[in-house]
Write a structure and sequence with these properties.
This protein has five helices and 22 strands. The protein has 316 residues and is mostly beta strands. The strands form four sheets. The protein has a 15-stranded mixed β-sheet that branches. A three-stranded mixed β-sheet has the order 10-14-13.
Length: 316
């Protein structure tokens, strides 16, 4: 088990070349990420900041980028990118503890209004690229994602997230905000990022817990749109894997299960002064089975770049 944990917290204003970086104070973090379109949330506690720094950090919409990981591997890797939605300071004995609540894409979703007009023949991919640009966010969209053609053109004025909703629903896609990026995938499927192998030799902490649909559910009821209520899956605890995000693929190997799954939600938890850094995953069967391929060597949680084929990293 690795204990040489490292982190880097950058705080400032989006688009600014100035900011503050923290690497040596005690911090605690709890990060929750889902495949849903609501902004992912994070809570970060920082101990014993100077008063002037606290006041600067507590301003609404301040941008925070948290990197965390293991020195023996690739060092700190991006684990959360978001805006301050609420902040406060409390006194705990000799410690001054400042806590931040953060939202991934919160400001962009709340504040961005778009006005677009397209001639006939515009495709959904082009609309999504233009909206992401107006939101000031990168877009990840698989090259093989389904596309819709608007034969009569398309015009819209209003909140950017509403247009993203309309375009993705009409095209069989789903979207979410992941680390300051507008992530779009085919509904129920996975990203094209390289998959991660999780096993007892590569970070798995205990046996996966089986998760099943409610067998007593009345079959006449309208089918739920919640992926967690539609598919079987597993709950998995592992050492911190900072680069994992919802909709990524994971190859899970244990005594009870051996298969490839989609991440539906996850949490990252850590304290620089106490306990293990952990990632808890909720995995579900993807909409269409993903072929297994031979794993490649790499660090825990390594991003691995963007790959079109399933490619698993692990074997630490």
């Amino acid at each position: 088990m690795l204990f040489d944990r490292v982190y880097r917290l950058q705080v400032g204003t989006k688009g600014s070349n100035t900011g503050t970086e923290i690497t040596d104070l005690r911090i605690q973090f709890n990060i929750e990420k889902t495949a849903k379109k609501n902004p992912n949330k994070s809570s970060i506690k920082i101990y014993n900041l100077q008063q002037s720094t606290r006041e600067e950090f507590e301003k609404p919409d301040t941008r925070c980028l948290l990197y965390a990981g293991y020195k023996e591997e690739q060092g700190p890797l991006l684990i959360f990118n978001g805006n301050v939605t609420f902040a406060w300071t409390q006194f705990d004995g000799a410690d001054v503890v400042t806590e931040f609540e953060l939202g991934d894409g919160q400001k962009e979703i709340r504040d961005t209004t778009v006005s677009v007009g397209y001639k006939k023949g515009v495709k959904s991919g082009q609309v999504l690229k233009d909206v992401a640009k107006q939101m000031g966010m990168p877009l990840t969209l698989p090259s093989n994602a389904p596309e819709r053609l608007w034969n009569n053109g398309l015009s819209y004025y209003g909140p950017a997230h509403t247009l993203v909703d309309k375009v993705t629903k009409a095209t069989g896609l789903e979207w979410s905000m992941q680390n300051g990026t507008l992530q779009v995938v085919e509904s129920g499927m996975v990203t094209t990022r390289a998959g991660i192998l999780i096993s007892m030799d590569s970070g798995l902490l205990k046996h996966p817990e089986r998760m099943r649909k409610d067998k007593t559910e009345n079959s006449k009821k309208k089918k739920s749109k919640d992926p967690l209520k539609q598919a079987d899956g597993w709950k998995v605890d592992c050492l911190l894997m900072p680069t994992l995000n919802p909709c990524d693929r994971v190859k899970l190997e244990s005594r009870s299960v051996n298969g490839v799954f989609r991440i539906e939600k996850l949490t990252h938890d850590g304290d620089t002064h106490d306990g293990d850094w952990q990632t808890k995953l909720t995995l579900i069967d993807p909409k269409i089975p993903i072929a297994e391929v031979k794993g490649t060597k790499g660090g825990r949680g390594s991003a691995g770049g963007l790959e079109e084929e399933a490619n698993f990293e692990g074997d630490l």
